Amino acid sequence: MRDLGASSRMRSIGIGILGFGTVGAGVVEGLQRNARVIGERLGLMPAVLRIADLDLEADRGVAVEPDTITRDAEAVVRDENVRIVVELIGGTGAAKELVMLALELGKPVVTANKALLAEHGREIFELAERRGVDLYFGASVGGGIPVIRALREGLIGNRINSIHGILNGTCNYILTRMEAEGLEFEQVLGEAQAAGYAEADPALDIDGTDTAHKAVILASLAYGFSVPMSSVATEGIRGISRTDIRYAGDLGYRIKLLAVIKREDSRIEVRVHPTLVPLNTMLASVGGVYNAVMVEGDLVGKTLYYGRGAGRKPTASTVISDIAEVMKNLEGGSRRPLAALAQIGQPAGIMDIGEVVTRYYLRLSLLDRPGVLGRIADILGANGISIASVIQKDISQDDYVPVVIVTHRACEAELNTALGEIDALEIVGAPTVRFRIEE
Amino acid sequence: MRDLGASSRMRSIGIGILGFGTVGAGVVEGLQRNARVIGERLGLMPAVLRIADLDLEADRGVAVEPDTITRDAEAVVRDENVRIVVELIGGTGAAKELVMLALELGKPVVTANKALLAEHGREIFELAERRGVDLYFGASVGGGIPVIRALREGLIGNRINSIHGILNGTCNYILTRMEAEGLEFEQVLGEAQAAGYAEADPALDIDGTDTAHKAVILASLAYGFSVPMSSVATEGIRGISRTDIRYAGDLGYRIKLLAVIKREDSRIEVRVHPTLVPLNTMLASVGGVYNAVMVEGDLVGKTLYYGRGAGRKPTASTVISDIAEVMKNLEGGSRRPLAALAQIGQPAGIMDIGEVVTRYYLRLSLLDRPGVLGRIADILGANGISIASVIQKDISQDDYVPVVIVTHRACEAELNTALGEIDALEIVGAPTVRFRIEE
User: pLDDT tens digits for A312-339?
Assistant: First the structure.
């Protein structure tokens, strides 16, 4: 064993941590456990000087000097020895005020707060830019996966053609179990809640909002402008049944909740919804709580980043790498411009979901009677939608049979018109189930 | 369209490129095509001032001022306006001299040269460290995949437990086609050569040397010391037959050429060989010419990086990101310490392949006679090797039948002893085929 002399003589940089919850404790524990590795790799030592949390008593499973912790978060931000502010409070209240204060004071900020950036990114990015201060947010998307770093740095030479992401571990866990065990959504959700894999109030996850937050951040990074949450068409996974999972499998697909970000001519589309992806693709292979992001660049082609999208230690891993990066920048007196504001002369408009053109999976409930499928095909055809394949199995349910249609590429608005007409027919027993397909 | 005023007023940094072949031309083309994106993301403009190549005439499909190109590589390195030297010559001759010269002159170097780093890494790293100069080599492993960046920066807070990599696109392409089409190795290799997917002299790829070069670089980065090529047990893919691919599939595995790097107590193992990986894993899903690297860190858990491991544009993507990084460092007057020399107090010893403990796939050729399997089991048992499963199908080949045995975890040296005894038996018709299994 070498002695610690080298490390202890290394220059250290003071860190203030706001929020001593799961991730905050993970960051402190990680910095303690791997201090020497980090110091030797970086040539600098991170020193956690102060930690703010409203709860001074809880046992976080990590030892810190008692006088390090305070309830006064603002004092931590203002402490002149704190040179980097790490915001791990979450939400858009106190977190926003403290992040803005730090940036105003000219202190670089590291945050894992996706809601804050998705909803107030523009204001925060602009302040960071105006004050010439670093803002790192690697853990806001993909937890432990260094995908933000890849977009900001590893793919800096690329124009981004598209991003497809499985960004919510709870949803992916539920879908994986539904398929593996042939269960319905509600049953898996209940068990996931009991086991702690899903929140007591799971709406933010299963309705797609969490994924949309992350999509907004990725789109901003890729295309250099602020994407409002309101422009992201978002559907969650409540409407997925085991029946659809089975049919999708028969057709050679698996259903995933995807964030889809694409450049189409001069505009981009940003959408979040259950999506059929071909079984033989990398994204289809992502099971359980894992996340993955497929990024296609004009030089690099397809790249994929995979790992744990949440959790104490994985998230801490990324927060620590952001802290390390800011330390290097501080040492050199430089900073990273925010690609999220780079306005790189790329498409600046956002497409309405009605303009999206893609293939669709449709599951109709039709009376088992001659000529019925012909009427459906006529309506689709009249709306410019052509059929790629049809599955009709010989199973009757209350006089209605399920018929699954896969379309060729069609425009969403036209599909909606067609489905409006179809679902009004007396031969249709239930609203048509519709999922988009990405190849 | 915004005007280019902002970009043209940006500070630029002079680049010299050594080697104007496939990758060199890709880098110049990428820098030209995406100059504005890069400049706005980085806040600095890369300016290719000089290019050295022995061939001044060839058409590289990219337009450069004629007087930019010279045959005098040393003059490019010494040019005082060239502040970053990009070495894309390859090999360990002129490339080494020029890299050493640049470092001696205090100029940061970007290289994609895996052979150079695998064989002379220690000398080069130490010179860079002594001169306090940046050395970036992202494209030396994984082509367009930013996995070196992930190891150096994104996972900086982690101790690395293991790395499993599919690092050679030619081998992966051959294995993918052998499986998909039920072909033998020689046939696919011939077709791959005809189609330009494999070199006329494919030895470096298919015998595993290229993968071993990359394994050495990854191991150095992960564990902070120089791993000699001679310590890497290396087997290529010539010995894989479609029979083994089929048996592996029956057992729930796919055969991949893997680089395996693992920490075991106080030492590491670094090995390259055909490996059975479970079908339901991400690595098993990597098909065709794609590469992927699974990195497991103590904080982050498992992460995977996937993309094109070679080719003009993907490699250029990574070289450009390295150039961008060095530019940022130069601007701030800072540099990145070389994690490959960080000597992070982690295990420093390298295990001999004989000490490796893993599971094995064995395909024996046995006389179809009662008691034969019992004798094999006895020999394995006497050497401390226990059997997990056996497949014996009812197919006779010249009186001998193939018998496939999967073992529990066993020590390589003991397995070798057992196989020595087994292959000497008169009931054995051909040397036993043996592959390692990674779960």
Answer: 999 999 999 999 999 999 988 888 877 6
Region B219-247: mean pLDDT is 93
**pLDDT on residue A4:** 38
Q: Which CATH class for the B152-310+346-350 domain?
A: alpha beta
Structure-token pair, residue A140: 């806001």
Long-range contacts of A77-82 (CB under 8 A, 24+ apart): A77/A16, A77/A18, A77/A101, A77/A102, A77/A105, A77/A107, A78/A105, A79/A14, A79/A16, A79/A49, A79/A50, A81/A14, A81/A49, A82/A14, A82/A15, A82/A16, A82/A49, A82/A50, A82/A107
Candidate list B96, B114, B214, B262, residue with the active-site label: B214
* Residue found by looking up tokens 């010893």 in the block: B349
- Cβ-based contacts under 8 A for chains A and B: 245
Residues on chain A touching B286 (C-beta within 8 angstroms):
282
Q: What is the pLDDT of residues B380-391, one digit of tens each?
A: 999 999 999 999
> Domain B5-146+313-340 belongs to what topology?
Rossmann fold (3.40.50)
Query: CB B41 to CB A286 under 8 A?
Result: no
Compare CB distances from B334 to A155, A304, A332 and report the shortest one's residue.
A332
Kindly determine whether residue A153 and residue B149, on different chains, have CB atoms separated by under 8 Å.
Answer: yes
The CATH homologous superfamily for domain A5-146+313-341 is: NAD(P)-binding Rossmann-like Domain (3.40.50.720)
CATH 3.30.420.40 describes domain A354-437 = no
Chain A residues whose beta carbon lies within 8 Å of the beta carbon of residue B301:
144, 307-308, 311, 313-314
Does the structure show a pLDDT above 90 at A143? yes
Work out the average pLDDT over A24-28.
97
CB contact under 8 A, B31 and A157: yes
CATH of A153-309, one of 3.40.50.300, 3.30.450.70, 3.40.50.1980, 3.30.360.10: 3.30.360.10
Taking only the tens place, the pLDDT of each residue in B198-209 is: 888 999 999 999
CA distance B307 to chain A (A): 4
Q: Is the pTM higher than 0.90?
A: yes
Domain boundaries, chain B: 5-146+313-340, 152-310+346-350, 354-437
Q: Which residue in the list A96, A114, A214, A262 is annotated as catalytic?
A: A214
A344 with B36: Cβ contact below 8 A: yes
What DSSP string runs through A350-369?
Answer: E--GGG-EEEEEEEEEEES-
Catalytic residue at B107? no
ipTM of the complex: 0.94
Residue A382 φ/ψ, nearest 5 degrees: -65, -25
